[in-house]
Amino acid sequence: MAATYLPTLKQLQYLVALHDSGHFGRAAEATFVTQSTLSAGIRELETLIGVVLVERTRRVVRFTPLGERIVAKARRVLREADELGDLARAAGRPLSGEMRMSVIPTIAPFLLPRILPRLRKDYPDLKLFLREETSGQACEGLHHGRTDCVLLALPFACGEVETASLFDDRLFVAFPDGEMDPTPSIRPADIDETRLLMLEDGHCLKDHALAACNRPELRAEATMLGTSLHTMVQMVDNGLGLTMLPEMAIDAGILDHTHITARPLDALNASRHIALVWRKASPRERDFRLLAEVLAATRRG
Questions:
Q1: Residues near 293 by Cβ (< 8 Å), separated by ≥ 6?
Q2: How far is 154 from 273, CA to CA, in rounded Å?
Q3: Per mean pLDDT, which of 49-58, 165-174, 189-198 is the most reliable?
C-alpha cells in the first residue's frame, strides 16, 4: 500500500499567515520563522497536493481560487487542533493554562483594571492573553480561531456563538458644564445634533447610542471622528460638542479633572448589554461560564 503524505500543521499555519498578511516577510514574523523557511514550507505543501495555491510576483501575493478554499479549510483544521489542547485543559483545573480573549476598546480600559487583579489572585495558573480590537475584528478572530472568547457589547451580530450575560451598561450624555440644563436625565429630543460627537465607524457603541436615541437625523448630522472615548472626552472638555459615554467609563473616572457634566440618557434601551461570547460546542465552555461569573461578580463588587 502506497504511503499517504498529509500536510503538516506547520505548513497550514504558514499558508494562513500568508493569507492574513498578504506578505511573505510579515507572515514569517507572525509565525516566528525566516522568510525562506515559510516560503519553502508553502512550496512543499503545493508540491504535496500537486497544485499552485499562491501566485507570486514581485509586488503582489495572490491566492488562486483553490488556494482560497484550502485556506478556509486550513483555518478549520488549525482550530480543531487547538481544541485538542482545550479538551485536555478542560479536564484539569478550572481556568488554568492559556486563554486568548479579545476585548473591545470601549470596555478594555475601564473594566480590565478591575478584573485582572482578581483573576491573578484567584486563578494564578490562568495565562490570559488579551487583544483589544473592534467588535467586527474580534468576532472574525473568534471564528477563525485566533481568539478563544470575546468580551463584547450587545446587540452585535457575532455569528453562531454561545453567550453568557454579564450586566447592563447605561448610556450617559456628556456635555460641557453649563451647556445643557442639568436635569436628572437627558431626553433624545434635547440633544443638538449639530453638536454631537461620536466614535468613528467600527465602534459598536456609536450604533448602540444612535439606536437608543431613535432619531435618524442624529446619524446624518453627528460628527463621526473619535478614535477612543478618551479622545471624545478631551474634545468635549474643549467645548467642541457633546457625546455619549457608557456608565463603566464614568465609574472608572474618565471625567475626573474635566469640566464635563454627564446625565443618563432617558430613552428605551438606553444601555448596552455586556457579555462574554465563544464558539458553539467549545470544549472549554465550563471555563468560559466560570470566567463570566468572575467578570460579573467583579463588576458588582
A1: none
A2: 5
A3: 165-174
Residue ranges of alpha helices (H) inside 226-269 are: 229-237, 247-251
Cell of 229: 472615548
**If you search the block for the grid coordinates 516577510, which residue do you land on?**
25
C-alpha cell at 2: 502506497
Last residue of a domain, one of 30, 53, 85: 85
Place of cell 444601555: 271
At residue 81, the 3 state secondary structure works out as: helix
Domain count, the chain: 2
The answer on pLDDT for 225 being more than 80 is no
> Within this chain, do residues 248 and 112 fall inside the same structural domain, yes or no?
yes
Question: Looking at the structure, do residues 55 and 201 belong to the same domain, yes or no?
Answer: no
For residue 48, the enclosing domain spans 9-85
Please answer whether residues 248 and 296 qualify as being in contact, where contact means their C-beta atoms are separated by less than 8 angstroms.
no
CATH number, domain containing residue 204: 3.40.190.290
Tens of pLDDT, residue by residue over 74-89, are 888 887 777 776 666 6
Please say whether the dihedral angle defined by the alpha carbons of residues 214, 216, 221 and 222, taken in this order, is positive or negative.
positive
Report the predicted TM-score, pTM, of the whole model to 2 decimal places.
0.73
Residue from 105, 154, 95, 141 nearest 276 by CA:
154
pLDDT at 63 > cutoff 70: yes
